[in-house]
């Protein structure tokens, strides 16, 4: 179980890896902010030599590069209003959480850590905060900060052994991966937003991780190593842990699932073609389609909510 737990962490971090003020232009007029992203997919790719952040339409068209550095930029996460993208970058010689506008402008280092590393940014349901993982106190544990990088502190609602937090759309609940003492291995837990009422949804059901809430809060997609397979597969379950259903079935790892705004589809990362690509499938696992289809590594997909 320890080996599979380490492999889960490798899979999660394999894909692993705000607040630019508006300056004044001529005449003191503030420039118009770029339009927000809406029903698009942001992802990372090394197609241009190293990992950078890209965006594309849900059918895989119009793939556009947003970052351009000689170092890794990866694991993007988009604010609920589509206006900002948080991501991990190694540009200062260590991994920090950065943020930028939807078009790649206004890139700002939010964590500015010294002698430590920060990974896995996740936006709160209302866009006011960003959760992330940091080893600044020795081992990796969950942290949280304001969207502009202020007030960085351990995430009080979670235990040190909890990772990959995700808020439900209404902000009332958290899902997360936990390897707390007493569990059989990495498990999917849910709790109230303040951390109370913790419930294990996957007791004694293999190695589990990467929970993702459906837009309506009724289902949770996740990855798991169970059923005698040696590969991680995407599953879905009701928010109370019932009806756990396998969606992918390949001699390859499938992981990093993210819901479409209408809850009808899931995008995910797979190495079934021999390299990492981003696929999309129905919420029932039907019609998997390769969106990126190139010799490079494409992963870390996040589907952006549709804006009003």
Helix content bin = under 10%
Radius of gyration: 18 Å
Mean pLDDT: 91
Binned strand content: 35-45%
> What ranges have pLDDT less than 50 throughout 5 or more consecutive residues?
1-7, 9-26
What is the string of helix and strand elements? Answer: HEEEEEEEEEEEEEEEEEEEEEEEE
Structural class: mainly beta
The overall strand count is 24
Largest sheet: 4 strands, antiparallel
Number of helices: 1
Distance between the termini: 45 Å
| Order of the strands making up the biggest sheet | 3-2-1-24
Morphology: globular
What does this structure look like?
With 308 residues, the chain is mainly β. Helix content is 5%, strand content 39%. It has a four-stranded antiparallel beta sheet with strand order 3-2-1-24, with no helix packed on it. β5 and β6 form a beta hairpin. It starts with a helix and ends in a 5-residue tail after the last strand.
Secondary structure: elements and pairs:
Layout: H1 2-15, E1 41-45, E2 52-56, E3 64-65, E4 73-78, E5 84-89, E6 96-101, E7 108-109, E8 118-123, E9 129-134, E10 141-146, E11 153-154, E12 162-167, E13 173-178, E14 187-192, E15 199-200, E16 207-213, E17 219-225, E18 233-238, E19 245-246, E20 254-259, E21 265-270, E22 277-282, E23 289-290, E24 298-303
Antiparallel strand pairs: 1-2, 1-24, 2-3, 4-5, 5-6, 6-7, 8-9, 9-10, 10-11, 12-13, 13-14, 14-15, 16-17, 17-18, 18-19, 20-21, 21-22, 22-23
Give short descriptive properties of this protein:
308 residues; globular; four-stranded antiparallel sheet; mainly beta; 1 helix
What is this entry, summarized?
The chain is mainly beta and 308 residues long. It has one helix at 2-15; strands at 41-45, 52-56, 64-65, 73-78, 84-89, 96-101, 108-109, 118-123, 129-134, 141-146, 153-154, 162-167, 173-178, 187-192, 199-200, 207-213, 219-225, 233-238, 245-246, 254-259, 265-270, 277-282, 289-290, 298-303. It has one helix and 24 strands.
């Amino acid at each position: 179980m320890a080996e599979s737990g380490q492999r889960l962490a490798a899979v999660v971090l394999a894909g692993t890896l705000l607040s630019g003020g508006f300056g004044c232009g001529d005449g003191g007029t503030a420039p118009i902010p770029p339009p927000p992203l809406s029903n698009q997919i942001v992802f990372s790719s090394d197609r241009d030599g190293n990992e950078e952040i890209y965006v594309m339409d849900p059918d895989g068209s119009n793939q556009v590069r947003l970052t351009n550095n000689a170092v890794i930029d990866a694991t993007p996460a988009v604010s609920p209003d589509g206006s900002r993208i948080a991501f991990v970058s190694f540009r200062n010689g260590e991994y920090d959480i950065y943020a930028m506008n939807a078009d790649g402008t206004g890139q700002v280092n939010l964590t500015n850590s010294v002698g430590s590393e920060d990974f896995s940014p996740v936006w709160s349901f209302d866009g006011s905060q960003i959760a992330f993982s940091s080893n600044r106190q020795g081992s990796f544990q969950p942290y949280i900060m304001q969207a502009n990088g202020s007030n960085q502190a351990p995430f009080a609602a979670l235990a040190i052994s909890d990772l990959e937090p995700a808020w439900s759309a209404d902000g009332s609940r958290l899902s997360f991966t936990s390897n707390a003492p007493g569990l059989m291995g990495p498990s999917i837990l849910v709790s109230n937003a303040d951390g109370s009422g913790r419930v294990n949804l996957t007791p004694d059901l293999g190695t589990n991780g990467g929970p993702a809430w459906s837009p309506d809060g009724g289902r949770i997609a996740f990855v798991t190593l169970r059923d005698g397979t040696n590969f991680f597969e995407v599953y879905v379950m009701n928010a109370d842990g019932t009806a756990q259903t396998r969606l992918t079935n390949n001699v390859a790892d499938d992981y990093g699932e993210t819901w479409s705004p209408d809850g009808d589809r899931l995008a995910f990362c797979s190495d079934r073609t021999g390299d990492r690509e981003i696929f999309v499938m129905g919420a029932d696992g039907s019609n998997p389609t390769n969106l990126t289809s190139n010799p490079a590594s494409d992963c870390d997909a996040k589907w952006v909510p549709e804006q009003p």
